[in-house]
Amino acid sequence: MNNQRVRVRFAPSPTGPLHAGGVRTALYNYLFARQQGGEMLLRIEDTDQNRYVPGAEEYILEALDWLGVQIDEGPQQGGPHAPYRQSERKEMYREYAEKLIADGKAYYAFDTAEELDAMRKRLEEAKVAAVQYNAITRMEMTNSLTLTPEQTQAKLESGEPYVIRMKIMPKEDVRFKDLIRDWVVVHSSQIDDKVLLKSDGMPTYHLANIVDDHLMGITHVIRGEEWLPSAPLHVLLYRYLGWESTMPQFAHLPLLLKPDGNGKLSKRDADLGGFPIFPLEWTDPVTGDKAKGFREEGYLPAATANFLALLGWNAGTEQEIFDMEDLIKAFSFERVHKAGARFDIQKANWFNQQYLKQMDDAAIVAQIKPLYQAKGIDVKDDQIAQIVHLLKDRVHFVKEIVSESVFLFNEPEVYDQDVAVKKWNEEAVNAISALKDAFADFSGDFTSQNIKEAIFAALDAIGVKMGKVMQALRLAVTGAGAGPDLMIIMEILGKDEVVKRLENALDRLPAQIRLA
Ligand code: GLU
Predict the structure, then answer these.
(1) Nearest 5°: phi and psi at 381?
(2) Among this protein's residues, is 423 annotated catalytic?
């Protein structure tokens, strides 16, 4: 690597919400830029106006911001190479396409859609392997290579629509060293004469991307594997434009695969699996179709970034938990895999759980207070703190603390029927009655430790083993057969509430079992 200052860019097209793969691309760019003390640019590649989707650019900005990917130069930040939206740079590109023509590396093509179709048909019928506009077929078409200069000039002056195509030279080897895939070698005969400038005067992706990367001083192009087939063409463009000596290095990142590892991850997988693959929720402005977002589903931004960073990269150690600073230090292209990375939402949940455990209780209390209020539950801060303490290690999401604790506030109306039928027997009824009396008479602090001792003593007195009636006790107190530490639940509820719930259960459970 030369000692030039690192400059990378994330160059999304605003054609919809950014999916997990795109977010990961942005993240790797950011990690590398920060690690190298370089700059991270955001460039909006919006030259294909047919595919432009309103709201997509705002979505991209918000998603990066949420994840903590900071942009140094971009449409919002500005910078020395503004504008950073390609549609606003339209006039700049033509010059380079025309320079290529002047140098004999590109040409005007006037073929109509029908003529192009006819060519394709002809080649297909002749069973030609590469059905494309190339060194051989271009000589049968209407372009400035087959027309005389006068004919070409006349067409241009008459305002006839045209495109500018790249003139790929036959028999050239295109080689470049990818930071992840090592040497990539392609023969130029496999590359077609790509359109560089469209008939509406807009550049294609290829031209705009290369011109901008060059003008913006990009040193590393880090992008998804789907762009690997375009890379040889890009290398040729650098060569034809005389910019090969400052060509950026390429790093093509592995694909994200479906949860079962078979094929590319798609929105359909997310819909079927009921999990998000987008950072933020998205509503399609045309169809109204909704897609889930990591943010709205309750994933913490740091956990999401950690999860995405490990899709296709690892540190080569056992360490899995990396905050942004750790990722910046540890990231390297050598440890980015070539093979696709399976998208496993369970892993994302696991990361969220790890980050939740590390979170400050007070911060969680502040986050969930409004969630209780929204459910109409009036709960005091110290009570929430106890609940957080009780449930924090058992859940994957902050919001689960609320859903798992609503039973604390509403006494059970129905009891889990399976558990009731199995566990609410004569022995249990005797034990629960004894416990109800013991609790009613209890004096002192109603703490989990004291409660436990009181239970031991009361059961001992009637000769019942604790293990045999614990589930019945839980059923009576919470209505459920399983859940968090029952002693702590009873402590949070307080003595009077527990006694009341035991009385209710003794009253209601026999009827519920009979009706079943
Ligand atoms: N605009 C392209 C995209 O949407 C950029 C590809 C690249 O990074 O070169 O992903």
Answers:
(1) -55, -40
(2) no
Which residues surround ligand 1 with Cβ inside 6 Å? Answer: 11-13, 45, 205, 209, 223, 227
Residue 512: both structure tokens together: 């519920």
For a ligand 1 pocket test, name from 202, 209, 225, 233 the mutation site with the most ligand atoms within 8 angstroms of its C-beta: 209
In DSSP notation, 424-448 reads: -SHHHHHHHHHHHHHHHT--S---H
Residue pointed to by tokens 């998000």: 276
Q: Is 94 left (phi over 0), alpha (psi -120 to 50) or beta?
A: alpha
What's the pTM value of the predicted model, to 2 decimals? 0.88
- Given 99, 198, 267, 399, the catalytic residue: 267
- Out of 227, 238, 250, 255, give the residue to mutate to test ligand 1, the one with the largest number of ligand atoms within 8 Å of its CB: 227
Instruction: State how far Cα 257 lies from the chain centre.
Output: 13
Residues 264-321: pLDDT tens digits?
Answer: 999 999 999 999 999 999 999 999 999 999 999 999 999 999 999 999 999 999 999 9
Q: What does the pLDDT look like over 201-225, one tens digit per residue? A: 999 999 999 999 999 999 999 999 9
Beta-strand relationship, 282-283 and 163-166: unpaired
Helices (H) and strands (E) in the chain, counts: 22, 13
For residue 211, give Cα distances in angstroms to 73, 218, 231, 422: 17, 10, 14, 73
Task: Report the distance separating Cα 209 and Cα 197, nearest Å.
Answer: 12
